[in-house]
Amino acid sequence: MDNSLRSDRVPSLRRRLLLLVSTASLTFLVLAAMLSYQQARHEVQELMDGQMSRMAQLMLAQALLGEDRLLDLPARLVDILGLPSVEDELTLEYQFGRADGTLLVRSPQAPSLPLTGPLGFSTMQADGLPWRTLLLEMADRGFRIQILESIPMRDAEALEIAVRTLEPLALIFPLGLLAIYFSVRRGLQPLEELAREVVTRSSDNLSPLANRAIPLEAQPLVAAINRLMFRLGAVLESERRFTADAAHELRTPLAAARIQAQVALLSSDPEMRDHALKQTLSGLDRATRLVEQLLRLARLDPLAQVPEPKRINLGQLAWRVAADVRDMEPDACISLDLNATQARVDGDEELIEIALRNMLDNAGRYSTKGSEIIVFLSARSDGLRLGVRDCGPGVAAEELPRLTERFYRGPAVAAEGSGLGLAIVGRIAELHGAILELHNRVEGGCIAGFEACLRWPH
């Protein structure tokens, strides 16, 4: 295989799938972390608010037993043993006082905040830090209790909960990526086998690819490749046949010209030498016409459509071609029958001119010398027609279907020709969406001539 196909500049479907799936997985993990953090923060807020409320109620209950029970509360809390020391545990601070703002007792780390604020939960600033506060009052005793908790510590606790929640996912994520890699690799295996089958094929093997094991999504690609192989096979076969026929057709006029040239060289009779030279020129003219026709076909065959179609006035084109032919062949009896002089089609004007000239050339070669040849343009219910009719002997019915075959000239044709004229006209018709119609003209039950035309359906 060509190493250029493995270049990093060539996009890899496997790499693309891995990148997309991994990015999507990582995005979902980040979103899950953000949602988990928000949820944990919300839960911590509710949990801590509930804890603050319970602590405030308990301390107020202690105050009912006597004010002195609260004054030595900080010292008694320090003497409590048996609880493990946790550096990052959430601690609640408190202040206890009277409704007039007099402070009676406070915890060692409690910030200095007034006790005269509004009752209930609130957020306050102390020493540049936000605090969550709960202020309650015993109306009958005049006591006030304020419970405080650091908001940064709350957020840190929420983050820790979220991290601990996502730790298993973070550990599993690399394993998930590995599983994705092997899954994508196995899923693309049929495509790799298809690629190997195509690469290992010989240049002359254009048989269809088997699509039994190909995934459903890749079957349109396989079908397109099979259609391409079918077209390539048809084109190659046509080219082989065309090359063989062209070689055969060129061999005859060239051999004849060679013989006549040899006769001219060996002849001492001026009249015989002149005749031989004229025959040589005739053979070369025939070979030249054949080469021109071959070059036209070689130009037309690869086209799928007219490259740059333009609007063409068929009436003007028919008049110009007929005038050119009259100038080149003054003896030709050519008349015009143009009933749709303003008819227009989209296409290549040069190609349509070649088609009309070929039809005129055929009419001149195969009809009776001096008989009338009519170039006609008409618009009918079934379409627009541009063509040529003559007054010759016509064509046998069994030969009509073969007139567009390349190099076919019929078994009883005496006129010179290559057998490519109508084949070129047919190809030009295909490129312009037209139909080449060939038939004998019948008058009074007898053949009165031959007609060839391009018809553009409505």
Task: Describe the protein.
The protein is α+β, with helices and mostly antiparallel strands and 458 residues long. It folds into three domains: 160 residues, PAS domain (Beta-Lactamase, 2-Layer Sandwich), CATH 3.30.450; 75 residues, Helix Hairpins; 147 residues, Heat Shock Protein 90 (2-Layer Sandwich), CATH 3.30.565.10. Helices cover 51% and strands 18% of the residues. Helix 6 runs antiparallel to helix 7, helix 7 packs parallel to helix 10 and helix 8 packs across helix 9. The longest helix has 52 residues. The N terminus is likely disordered.
Poorly predicted runs are 1-8
Q: Sketch the topology as an H/E string, one letter per element.
A: HHHEEEEEHHHHEHEEHEEHEE
- Determine the number of helices (DSSP H or I, runs of at least 4 residues): 10
The radius of gyration computed from the alpha-carbon positions, rounded to a whole number of angstroms, is 49 Å
- Any idea what the shape is? rod-shaped
Structural class, by secondary structure, is: alpha+beta
- Major sheet: arrangement of strands: 2-1-5-4-3
CATH topology of the largest domain: Beta-Lactamase
Q: What helical percentage do the residues reach?
A: 40-55%
**Average pLDDT metric:** 79
Strands, total number: 12
> Main sheet?
5 strands, antiparallel
Strand content: 15-25%
Distance between the termini: 51 Å
At the first level of CATH, the class of the largest domain is: Alpha Beta
CATH homology-level superfamily of the largest domain = PAS domain
Q: How does CATH name the architecture of the largest domain?
A: 2-Layer Sandwich
Overall number of structural domains: 3
